[in-house]
Specification:
This protein is mostly helical. The chain has six helices and two strands; from the N terminus they run αααββααα. The chain has a two-stranded antiparallel sheet. A hairpin with a 2-residue loop joins strand 1 and strand 2. The longest helix is centred in the C-terminal third of the chain and has 29 residues.
Amino acid sequence: MLAVAPALAACSSGVAPPARADAPVIVPGAPGQTGSPPARSALETWPSAEAGPVAADVRFAEAMIPHHRQALEMAGLAAARTGDPLVTAVANRVVSGQGPEIAVMESWLRGLGRTPPPAHDHGTSGHGMGGSGTATGSGMTSGSGMAGGSGMAGEEELNRLRTARGRAFDRLFLTLMIRHHEGAVSMAAQELRRGRDRAMRTMAQDVVSGQQIEIARMRGIQRRLG
């Protein structure tokens, strides 16, 4: 089984690596609030990680990078299109949280000798995650993708978001971002079931805990908008 280099996440990205799998996961708080650990019962349900990555870990990173990029694209539209400070806060949290995560996953893949998905690859190309597999030699076994389960927006939906303004933008943005987050949680849950690399499993734990909280916040904003 292929081992991950110790200094992997500290390489060219300049971004600090995710915490060890046995370190506490911190759930982000609302703006102005400090984070807090998730409920212990939620963490106890996840299987323990083994040393080194398997193919499921690689597929998780390779699928989550373009998934995060699309979230950044949608969030980047908010500043010029919404006048709602709560929607702006959601967009800002997406940018501040998912941008550094992309850098960590890209660094992790490069440490395995793999090229991260290209920068233009952030649309609806059907990225997904298949079976667990194992890592052997200098590469990973391939697996079937899982198109359609990632919650990513289609090009028509993105075009509608790009042209929307005000409350119309807010409603569509929240609808698309909730679905997008739900897809990320589903992808992360697969990684926690099948993956074995500590860094990627910790990333998945952060996605599950943090994005579930964001989903609840966005649904609350939706109810206020009516």
